[in-house]
Description:
This protein has one helix at about 1-25; strands at about 30-40, 45, 50-55, 60-65, 70-75, 80-85, 90-100, 100-110, 115-120. The protein is α+β, with helices and mostly antiparallel strands.
Amino acid sequence: MRSITRTVIAGLAGVALAAAASLTALAADITGTWQASVKMSSGQSGSPTFVFKQSGSKLSGTYSGAFGTAEVAGSVTGNSIRFSFGTAPQQARYVGEISGDTMRGTVDYGGQASGTFTATKQ
Length: 122
């Protein structure tokens, strides 16, 4: 009986590890150049470019746009993305969802302005 129980437990552990590996494999990989369109609630708009490098769930890269250039840091979990650039209190924070070669979501510029963004992988 003990042998059967150990075999069942070992089998379940193997299934759990395989499932976890599958979920990691399904996570979006956004490494590359993305052209964005930002529309602020004030009516202003912009077209920044982001170059992302993804390592697991960790995200790094660069922003290029109306505010010059800046380093970007963030994370990707499944199809959810969070990234920011700048320093508090003027940090730009992007939160969104990834679908294939497109992402969309909201942006907040240090509580001073907010809006939405869409981006397409180049």
